Amino acid sequence: MYILGIPVTVTVDDYLPFWSNRETGLIYGYPSADKGLWMAILEKAAAKLFGNYEMLSSGMIGPAIQALTGAPFYETYHHELTVDQLWE
Description:
Elements (H helix, E strand, L loop, with lengths): L1 E2 L2 E2 L30 H13 L10 H9 L13 H5 L1
Antiparallel strand pairs: 1-2
């Protein structure tokens, strides 16, 4: 993962938080269609990097991609731009 463009190694275990009153169901994240847990493990690494799960912004892909790749991101609201402005 990356913080301010600097690579950081984050080590996590394979214990994931599940609801105690349900038979199945991760508290954070979901298994992939093929039952893989890679997304839940990446989310756990991000939670460790930023302090805890509550520090993660739900549904915000930009900061997640930035933390994984180190690449900057910015948001563009298409409805505010013309086609020419968008291509610029």
